[in-house]
Amino acid sequence: MKKSRSRLVANVFLSLVALAIAAIHVVPLWITVTNSLKTRSDLSSNWTLPKRLVWDNFTKALDVGNLPRAFYNTIIITLVTTLFVVLIGAMAAYPLARNKSQRNTLVKTFVLSIMMIPALSLLVPLYVLLVRVRGISTLWGIIPVHITFNLPLAIFLYANFIGTIPKDLDEAAIIDGCSVFRVFDRIVLPLLKPVTVSVIILTAVAVWNDYQFSVYFLQKPISRVVTLAIASFFGITGSDPNVAAAAALMAILPVTVLYLILQKYFVKGMVDSAVK
Amino acid sequence: MEKTYRRTDVMYLPALFLFAVFVIFPFFEGIRISFTNWNGFSQKFSYVGFSNFKRLALDENVRIAFTNTLIYGFGSTFFQQILGLSYALLLNMKFASRMVARTIIYLPVLISAVIMGYMWYYLVQYDGALNEIVVALGGSKQMWLGSRVSAVGTITTINVLQFVGVSMIIYLAGLQGIPGMYYEAAEIDGAGAWQRFVHITVPMLYPAFVTSITVNLIGGLKLFDAIMALTGGGPGYASHSLATLINSTYFGSQMAGYAAAIGLLLFVSILVFTVLLQLVFKKREVQY
Fold it and tell me: Do A169 and A37 share a structural domain?
């Protein structure tokens, strides 16, 4: 009796501590919410909601910042990049996992070392390269760059995963007269679903949130992605901070909702990528 | 069978092609540009030998940005480990709100760092939410981004709070991998809570420490988005990291050659620090 009571007290106490910590982490989001629901002339505290919620900021943000266009661009870039990262990544991983020759070990080390390169240290030459092929401010210009810098992690995750699939499976099919490429297509690929979920989440989140490449390679308003559109709300002096708050909330909404629904997969993806 | 698999090597050619075009070629091109006085857009430029690198060594702004990069990198990493491990230890216990807390603490990791930076603007500006608290507590309003110390400190804090979820998840995964019987055996042998923590939890978490520190350090040394959103490197050049300094040197000062040289400095520093870190970890690993 006594023990269950002290356990209850501990449960309540720990729950309150955890909620207090969570509350601290939610503060920036909350302050953005309160600001997004107020007019500019409203000088009440940042911490409180206004008596009458103002939803105009959201419609204004959609108009002023041309957010629909930015969402469209971001979705296209994210989808195409993710698709190619999955395809090229899974393909590249297969020989690296199955044919462990000296050359392939070298290739694998090379792929790993690319992960360490800070993309920004290559900013100047990459920019020059895209200028030369007229790829600046085009979606097809930035997509290959995104694919390239998201590939190493994908290759790595796929190679590790394929390594855990018994070779017997491939070899039985090969002996039955199936070509090795068909084996990859028909037997290995379907088995890669769990790791593919991780690769998709990691790539899509990275590309959706990208700012460092987009800010250089997508300079024209027409090619703007969401992060750039939001930056433009805050960058212009005299722009309405309350409209900007509404825009920022709309920008983070898709990832937030997806995360809340598919939390298990997001966390698994992170753990996969970290425990290399 | 070996021969059959060898044929599949062609399958990594598309990936290697992309790496060649967008990593290897730019890398050498960057080295070439760093030996020129190119301004970034004109057709004309000339090779100036090592003058960009000489300048780099003497440039006060580079020195500041380099120091800031280390503060962002090592400062963030340090606090992320302390907070992340504490959160993981707390949320590994069984109580009602643990899943809600985990979900909320990890959420900011998935939000674009540049948008997160802008959201913090409502807290750190002069009439922002933080100063309201300071005033309510009887203090006077602070300029949270007004000087080098405050700007670098504020940005590091924001980075820590946003990405502490990464360390938390890594440590949680580590904690869940420790077999419960180790603790039971130690308890039977009379080991107290602190002894169990020091002699079981800490050594068993060693791989998690390695992973978390490496991930955080690389992320911190590359810090770009939050700085761009909150200060753009200011006031003056006070809160620049090497990453943002490359940007302002290229597009602001239009010195592409010099920016490429700073890019090489960033590349080399990250390389050196990650290699050093791995060496430290390798050495310690033998002890366990």
Answer: no
